[in-house]
Design brief:
Layout (H helix, E strand, L loop, with lengths): L27 E5 L5 H5 L4 E8 L2 E8 L2 E7 L4 H16 E2 L4 E2 L7 E10 L9 E9 L15 H11 L9 E4 L2 H7 L4 E8 L20 H6 L2 E2 L2 E7 L2 H11 L2 E11 L4 E2 L3 H17 L1
Parallel strand pairs: 1-4, 1-7, 7-13, 8-10, 10-12
Antiparallel strand pairs: 2-3, 3-4, 5-6, 7-12, 8-9, 8-13, 11-12, 13-14
Helix pairs in contact: 2-6
Length: 288
Amino acid sequence: MIKSSELILNPDGSVYHLNLKPEHIAEDIIFVGDQNRVEKITQFFDSIEFSTQKREFKTQTGTFRGKRITVMSTGIGPDNIDIVMNELDALVNIDLETKTPKANLTSLNIIRIGTSGSLQADIPVDSFVMAKLGLGLDNMLRSYLIDEITLPEMEDAFINHTNWDLKKGRPYIIPCSSTLEKRLESDKIHKGITATAGGFYGPQGRVLRLDIQDSTLNSKMDNFNFEGTRITNLEMETGAIYGLGKLLGHNCLSLNAIIANRANGTFSEDPYKAVDALITYALDKLAE
């Protein structure tokens, strides 16, 4: 039995942060960072059966072309992903009344739809990127036993190429779900490594009033190439989603609309249009 201090429930029996019960979620789940983006997706639904919000975690479940889908905002960063992934897994794989893991486990399909900046000059603004691999530059996932799911040879190559300071922790690399990759791929999408930073400013090379540990990291990431695979973009969630998904037995895939190009300094003239186009693309693929 899991202690009440470890799996915290609200008085109504819902999981603590997400405010959800098992019947509130579908097995196909779309993650967005911004709570205001939830309804930008569910506006396309045929119907909405459930809606709730607690803090930055907003959830709506409904149907799109007969397919039951949940859309959930995660907020920003690996720390929030730790909350969301663990509580979602608890909803389907732990009996919340007895607080014991179930004998038969459920695998969720989790697709992140986000915005991101491209690190490559030839991946323009308004294009779509699929994270074939998640590169975690944060330390959150290292709290778990992850050595069996990472790609150490590629990690070592990245560490050597960037002269990574291991005082910041060892980067980790984890592949996406091959099942979801096949389900959502097309010739419209760029594939590669999506890097996940633990913050927005210094961890992504932005300098305001504080000097950063490695001012050349972005340029070194730009030209990292491991057996033909490049780092396409930089954001704050994918690596953590892939890691916890792999550990917990869920299928995870991250898609990003590129709204900025860090290599040539451009920004989308209409980032909302780019995000809407990615939303439509993902919903169509899920409903097929």
